[in-house]
Amino acid sequence: MNFWLRLDSMDRRWVFLMMGLAVAIPILWIGITGRTFPETATPAARDVFRAIDSLPEGSRVLFGFDYDPASSGELQPMATSLMRQCAAKKLRIVCIALWPLGGNLAQETLAEVVRSDFPTMREGVDFVNLGYQAGNEGVMKVVLTDFKKAFPVDSRGQPSNDIEILKDVKTVSDFPLIVNVGAGYPGNKEWIQYVISACQGKVKMVAGCTGVSAPQLYPYYPVQLAGLLGAIKGAAEYESLVNEAMGGVPAPKYLEAQRRMAPQLFGHLLMVSLILAGNGIYFAGKRRPQR
Amino acid sequence: MTRQGKTWLVMCGVLAALLIARGLTGEGLGRVYVKKVEVSLGSEQVAGAQGVSQTIWKEVPADKATMKWVEWNQVAPKEFFAARAANPAQDSISLSWPRTIGLWLGAFFTLAIMSFLYADNIAYKLAEATVIGVSAAYWMVIGFWETLVPKLFGALTPTLVSKLVLPSLQPSDVVQQISMWVALVLGVMMLWRLAPRGGWIAAWPLAFIVGVTAGLKIVSHVESDLMAQAAATMQPIVEVVPSATGGTDWYATTWATLANALVLVGVVCGLVYFLFSVQHKGVIGGAARVGVWYLMITFGAAFGFTVMGRIALLAARFEFLFDDWLWLIDPNHLRS
Predict the structure, then answer these.
(1) Does the residue B302 lie in any domain?
(2) What integer pLDDT is reported at residue A90 of this predicted model?
(3) Which residue of B22, B217, B319 is the best one to mutate when testing the A interface, meaning the one whose CB has the most A CBs within 10 A?
(4) Rounded distance between C-alpha atoms, residue A61 and residue B107, angstroms
């Protein structure tokens, strides 16, 4: 039988198996050797780094966690690196979430980065987790006029009025930068539509997003978004920038995105091969005489 | 037995054999360890907002505490190995059975969902039904505890809610209370759909939701997606990029100019493609064809990003299986 015809009649489960191996083998290889591929940052990732790096020490940053564990495979590495750069830059971090599990992920990220590697930072003074707030765009509209009305207490139940880091905060305009990691609705797009547009240049925003939502967000860069981390590739680029800036040998938890780039490489090579094979089958079928 | 049944049997047998082999070598299979931490809190009265006295809880020594409890914090297995090596009788770090069972359930459900790629089966059906059931229950609980209790009941009956379930509830003003009465009435009207008669009453809150959402979206979309995007497109085609020495960076200038020209051509041709009141012939036809190419490239980029996202999620699941469950790899050095 002709090679292309054989391919045409191949059980699609072989494709699933090939994809599984293309992803699994690099994970095992990297897990055993600990080696990662080098990354070169694109302008969108470099601009995220610059936006945070250009803030004076002690500036307040509003850090949004608009995702849940279902998309943390893509987004958690960028949240970890963003938090690390903010902490290293001695910025004051205010975490919020418009997704129910975002508050828990903020807590985990704070524990993993701030509490373990920046122990001098004090809760309530240098960072705070205001947790989840229901209301989607409604919350965004409220923070434009009265931030503490939208977030009356922190995740521990302490009133916002009594929290040192929020002392002079009246509206969202009191944050020079919004860092938002979002997986969908409500997320980055809504922050741009309801907050960034309304603030008219007073507040900058950088975002991290999933691969699925990246094409919708690129049109906002670089005017409405100061920087954008698109999917795991953006996360890996930004992670390498932060690691380079911090110097020394990074802890394994700060290499998570770069570790996931090898499965990406082999998965994409397989996809490209399959697309080429599909085209080959199509043209071979066209050349075959019709009965 | 059918061929498919035999294949299932072989696959499950191989997996079981591999698991047993892995369990009998090295440190074995996935387990979760926890460390006992005693928390002691003492209360203190402080003047809060609007002069209202509030209770603040702070960590204090155990002998001065008015409230105590024990937390079990998850620790890396290597901490347990070190503690056991130092003192085999230690009990500060111990195996957590509930979390270990959770880990194994996570692995089972991951494999059950992946098994659908071979064929539909009972394990997949079980995992699917569990996801649907847990999601529905979860959203119901979130809706009740994050919206109804703090926002609705908290505004209408603050004393009761504060005493019973939410000590940190902040007092609401009259405007909030009135708006919550309106919300309650609209909510009841919405539920009227379930009543045998008067289903039309539910149309009114729906009309309210549609009207408010449309009002909110129109303003924000015009500001951010129409005006701001149009302004961002109207850039000079030739963009001169200064170099670090004060002259012109010709390399960057060329690329920036090319990028601006591509954006201009893409926007014009993309819009021409959607111009259906003119026949796509001649110059218009050519521009529309270029517009189609731009659209195809955009769809291709979107597809590529989607593939990237899905592979990242698959990689995260494999990492969970190989690292947390099977202990085959240790990229975060949690065990060594």
Answers:
(1) yes
(2) 96
(3) B319
(4) 37
Which residue ranges make up each domain of chain A? 3-35+262-287, 43-259
Structure confidence by residue, pLDDT tens digits, B241-270: 888 888 889 999 999 999 999 999 999 999
Residue at B299 is within a domain = yes
- The verdict on a CB contact (< 8 Å) between B168 and A232 is no
Residue B277 within any structural domain of the chain: yes
Q: B60 is in which domain, residue-wise?
A: 31-95
Is CATH 2.60.120 the classification given to domain A43-259? no
Measured between beta carbons, the chain B residues lying within 8 angstroms of A27 are 315, 318-319, 322, 329
Interchain contact, A197 vs B307, CB within 8 Å: no
Q: DSSP letter for B171, please.
A: P
Q: B193 in a domain, yes or no?
A: no
Rounded to two decimals, the pTM is 0.89
Partners of A19 on chain B (C-beta within 8 Å) are 314
Is B56 within 8 Å of A162 when comparing Cβ atoms?
Answer: yes
Chain B hits for A20, Cβ within 8 Å: 314
Per-residue confidence at B49, pLDDT binned at 50, 70, 90? low
pLDDT mean for each 10 residues of chain A (291 residues): 80 94 96 89 96 96 96 94 97 96 95 95 95 92 94 89 92 96 95 92 95 93 94 96 93 94 95 93 80 57
Q: With contacts defined as CB-CB under 8 Å, which chain A residues touch B54? A: 159, 162
In total, how many domains does chain B have? 2
